[in-house]
Each structure stands twice: as structure tokens, then as C-alpha cells.
User: Fold this.
Amino acid sequence: MNNTGSLYIDKPSFLHQLDGGVKLIWVVLWSIFTFMFMDIRIFLALIVIGAILLYCSKIEFRRMRVLIGFILGFTVFNSILLLILTPNHGSELAGSTTVLFKIGFYTLTLENLFYVLTISCKYIALLPITLIFLFTTHPSKFASSLNRIGVPYKVAYTVSIALRYVPDIQAEVKHIIMAQEARGVAFKRGDAPVMTILKNYMSVLIPLVLGSLDRIEVVSNAMDLRGFGKDKTRTWYVREPFTRLDIVALVIGVLFIAVGLILKANIGYFWYPF
Assistant:
């Protein structure tokens, strides 16, 4: 976290120079493109492209590792739930059934395992563009750029505040885990079975939500006392015009979606190679 109170890290990259609104549009377009498919080949390509862009942002991995770890942990937890709760969905999509092993009433099939792997890659494909947006977007500049493209300033400022509090929530998660560890709760691999560790991580949510609600109330009261929302318009301390780079990025975004539509028209919904 820096003096902006957000995850933004100032680096000399072209991604930092892009307008915040343009980057938000790219996040939306990237998400639409991702959810158009259920094809692991597409997701792996997006992961590679996203990793290259993330490298171009020049953000050190150590700055992102906590957030990456949290998202990957959620992905693993979600994958386990899918394997347990939807044991036949992969076979329904693939149109075949290849049993790997059977334990009581539960049967693990190759098709469902591949389906869960595909879903996990879909979530991971969204990770690079999200990290780029969070770590290369200045909150104040982002709020003003949203307001410039027609978003009401109240909504723009709400989004800006949300970005500012991401590192606070990240720090609070760390403090809650440290407090729980001091009480003997296991969070590290080797200290307890994997399912127990996942259950312990889920127990972090309740104090995190309660702490977030308290913070929301404090911020809301402070904004009310300062008369926020009284006027229909407002000025911005930081506001920059669109550049040629922003226009190029928007054109590439349109072409990106066009490629997605062409691919969608020529490949099936679920790709299963076996």
C-alpha cells in the first residue's frame, strides 16, 4: 500500500498511463470474453497473455502475492466443492463417462475432473487483468475518468473508495489470521489436514465482515458530515484528458471482442479432448 491508501503502485509502464475508465472497460471486455467460453485452450491463452501484460506492468510479485494467494486459495476451495457437489456435470457436458475411482456413493470421472480444471482455469484467466487494474489505477484519477464518461460522481467516488479499502481489507485478513494463530488455530500446511485448514480460513470471514461494516459506518458518517452529495456536480483535483494510447486500447478492445465472437461461432461450448 502507498500514500494513496490503495493498491496503486507508481511504475513507468504504458499500463499506468492508460486512463482508468479505459482499463475498467478492458476488465469488462476481458470478463465477457472469458465467460463466453468453456474451453481450456482459450483460458490458457488468456492466462499467458495476461501474464505477459502483468510482466509489462513492472509490478513486483511480492506486492501481489497475498492477493494472488487468496484468489488461488478460493479457486482451489471452489474446485473441491464442484468435485463434491456436481460429480456428474462433466460427463453430461462431454457426453461420455470414464470412471477413475468410486468410493461409496461418490464416483470421480475423468470428464468431471477435466470440467473442474476448465472452471479453475476460467477463474485464473480473470486474475491477471484484475491485478493490472488494481495495481496500475490511481483511485482519484479513476474516479474522475468515470465521471467524465458519464458515470454520476457519487457512483464514481463509491468505486474509488472501494479501491482504496482493498489493501485495508487485505491487512485486516492478515491481522485476523495472526490473532487466530496466536490462539492455536492452524493455517499453515503441515499443521493440520487440508480440509481443516480450509475450514479455518472460512472462519476468517465473520470477523472480516463485521470489521468492514464498522468501517463502512465510519466512512459514511464522515462523508455525511462533509456534505457529500449535496450538489449535482463536483470538480476534481486530478483529471487528465484522453490520449492516443487510450484510443488505441479501446480499438484493440473492440477487436478483442470481435475475435471472441468469431471463435464462439466456430467452436462448441465445452471442449473435451479425450
